[in-house]
Amino acid sequence: MKLTDITPAIALTPLDGRYHKQTAPLVEYMSEPALNRERMRVEVEWMILLANGFSGNGNQPIIPGVKPLTQAEQEYLRAIPEQFGAEGIARHAAHEAITHHDVKAVEYYIDDELDKAADTLGEDTQLTHLKTLVHFACTSEDINNLSIARCVKNAIEQVWLPDAQAIVDLLTEKAEQYRDMSLLALTHGQPATPTTLGKELAVFVHRLNRQLKHVREQEYLGKINGATGTFGAHLAALPDVDWIAVSQEFVTNRMGLTWNPLTTQIESHDWQAELYGTISHTNRILHNLAVDVWMYISRGVFAQEPVKGATGSSTMPHKVNPIRFENAEANLEISCSLLDTLSATLVESRWQRDLTDSTTQRNIGSALGYSVLALTNLLGGLKSIHPNEIVISRELDENWEVLGEPIQTAMRAGELAGEPGMDHPYEKVKELMRGHSIGKADVERFIDEQSFDSATAARLKALTPATYTGAASKLVDFDRQ
């Protein structure tokens, strides 16, 4: 039995197979049918603009001989993409099998619908005679660039951004919850100045919020200006029309995009490189989070809540593996590799047009899909962990040497103030604390041996590894600024 003979067809990639449930929301915006549906939206909206004009031209038809479309005719046209389902997908595929051109197949699909318009609108409708208006003065890339921009914009705003925001919201909640929970810090993997768990989570909130702000402010550019961006065919056919104004109206007000006035045959894709660069950067911050949490779990700082019935290891029943974080880590790396390739490739085009961008852009959904898959796993992982306060307290109590920093810094301040016996503070503290296992009594004895004033000595003696967290708790508030 050949797997290729099985129907329905077996998915080749895990995004459409094993992980379909997690990535399915992107199908609505980034699949091939979604792109074709958007192409239809662009085509029919262009028809409506050409037939009905806009306020800038007194709402008069732009094309002589075409009467303004009635409300019913406009609704009929707009229903074409909205009703594009399984039957329509098959019919479009049949056209493409003949044309070997996906946009031309869209044009013919709309022609089919115009042929049937009289059945719905009556014999008086002009739609049955307006096939020539479909794709008027357009090159395929006029339709494609607008459709892809709208697909990507919707995918980001409706799927990726809410998923990313859900992680930030959870981290924000946890940062507030654990703002005062002391935590032994590790710099270079060695015990270091304590912090709080809340502050460490707030660092990621702050980093991620900066990137999400860039995503929300991202421009999505579009153009509709002909075969080489000159409006050549437009002006040859209708030289008295202000086609530049028509183009700006269509891209800005009808498509909801930012108008790009200067292009070759293609929209230059710079906005895509900017967006994918930002998402890739966000992925890498999330990767850092996944790795950090994985190591906190390994260290025992975080405990995982086992899923009832789940197997951690096929041979070691006691294990609860941090698989969500490992899955997120791997899929973020795959997403970044695709996004980085898209960013690098799409900004280049040979002279006025080559086709490398066409096949490259078909992978946008995969690039976002691996990121969404990672976001889903990371969110699930973060929801399944909680601090192990026993381990956290033990780590702090076993590392009194971290108080060497505040003591030697207080000695430095004393020396600068002219107090006697405060010379060589760093060296004195190093002699006591480096390479030694010390405790509370050792620290207090050292403080008593110095010539601190009583207030400073009392303040230093009051410190413990658990209380030496500086302004960490207050810094958590900055994650929302």
From TrEMBL:
Residues 17-328 form the Fumarate lyase N-terminal domain. It comes from the Bacteria. Keywords: Lyase, Purine biosynthesis. Catalyzes two reactions in de novo purine nucleotide biosynthesis. Catalyzes the breakdown of 5-aminoimidazole- (N-succinylocarboxamide) ribotide (SAICAR or 2-[5-amino-1-(5-phospho-beta-D-ribosyl)imidazole-4-carboxamido]succinate) to 5-aminoimidazole-4-carboxamide ribotide (AICAR or 5-amino-1-(5-phospho-beta-D-ribosyl)imidazole-4-carboxamide) and fumarate, and of adenylosuccinate (ADS or N(6)-(1,2-dicarboxyethyl)-AMP) to adenosine monophosphate (AMP) and fumarate. Its EC number is 4.3.2.2. Residues 349-469 form the Adenylosuccinate lyase PurB C-terminal domain. It holds the Pfam family Lyase_1. It is an enzyme of class 4 (lyase). This is Adenylosuccinate lyase. InterPro entries: Fumarase/histidase_N, Fumarate_lyase_CS, Fumarate_lyase_fam, Fumarate_lyase_N, L-Aspartase-like, PurB_bact, PurB_C. It comes from Bifidobacterium thermacidophilum. GO terms for molecular function: lyase activity. The keyword Lyase applies. NCBIfam families: PRK09285.1 (NF006764). Pathway: Purine metabolism; AMP biosynthesis via de novo pathway; AMP from IMP: step 2/2; Purine metabolism; IMP biosynthesis via de novo pathway; 5-amino-1-(5-phospho-D-ribosyl)imidazole-4-carboxamide from 5-amino-1-(5-phospho-D-ribosyl)imidazole-4-carboxylate: step 2/2.
